[in-house]
Structure formats: structure tokens, C-alpha cells
Amino acid sequence: MKIICVGRNYVDHIKELSNDKPTDPVIFLKPDTALLEDSKFYYPSFSNDVHYELELVFKIGKVGKNIEAKFAHKYIDSYGLGIDFTARDLQSKLKEKGLPWEKSKAFNGSAFVSKMLPFQSSMMENNIAFHLNLNENLVQSGNSSLMIWNVFELIEDISKYFTLKTGDYIFTGTPAGVGPVQRGDLLAGFLENEKLFDLTIL
Ligand code: MG
Fold it and tell me: Rounded to the nearest whole angstrom, what is the distance from the C-alpha of residue 103 to the centroid of ligand 1?
């Protein structure tokens, strides 16, 4: 199982980090050791500025490569929410030097996934609202319609380079509103108005 992440997929988030709008999807990977399905995130020792990034996550249901966007829905098993935890201080240093991001993005527990819901054909309309509360205050809200590349276009692009396998996860990028977490914080993620997770920072 691998975790494929998309960066810079919402214009408002690109602006908040002063990044350039990409001409092709920005893709990076996290190893299976990054997956966190427990409701506890342990703050890593190597960072003082870990950020939450709430993202729509899709789980792959069958093997495929070179998948056309119009057939991509057939490869999705389920969907839910995830947090792409990012050691922002470390990432900034790596970006400055033009080095790979993995230490800041792919560390143990950096890919939290919520419970997953079965993929439904109604999602083809691509209008999924989601939001994140931090200690009961709204900090991020997004809608899949605001993505630069929707999940079907992302699957087309990703599967040119990486064969998708059953059980893989795709993190589709974060909207604006990213920010730091502290030990003791409680994150709660909602898809439409259904709470999909509670996650404590330890
Ligand atoms: Mg992200």
C-alpha cells in the first residue's frame, strides 16, 4: 500500500503559502509507515511547527495504470478525510535548499485517515463539502469543486507514473486555513455535516 499526495490543488492555499500555481499536478508519496488510523497523533521530536492539512482522501479499489479520467471512478472504492501532517519548519528548510520534502511530509503517522465511506455515483457531480474544527473552532472548510484538478483528473495523471493498487490512498490537497497544532489539541473532521473523526494531538 502506498499513499499518494497532491500538493497545491486549491488556489486559496497556494496563495497563503506564496507558492506558484502549478501547470501539472504536484505529486509526492508517503510510505505505508506514515499511515495513522488511530485517534492519536504523537507530536514528533524533530519539529516545533507541525501543521494540519485537511484533505479529501480516496481509497483505490482495483489495480490500474494509464487510467483515463472518464473511467477513473471505477477505480475508487471509498472516500473520507485525512490529515496530511506537515513539519512546516523542516519543509521550509528543505524547500529553500531545493531538497526533497520527505522528512517533513512522510514521517511516521503523518498520513491520518478517517473512517471511509463507500464511493457513490452521486459524487461524480464533484461537489463534496468538508471542514475541520480545532478545539471546536472552525479552521478549514473546503469543497471538491474548488480543486484545480478533480480526483478523476488526478487519477489520470498519477496512474501515468505510478500503478495504482488496491488499498492505495490518494490525498487530494488542502484548501486554505492550514495552521499549527499543539500537544493537547483536538481535531474533528466533517464530511458534509457528518463527523468522520476525532483526533487528539499528544
Ligand atoms: Mg497536503
Answer: 14
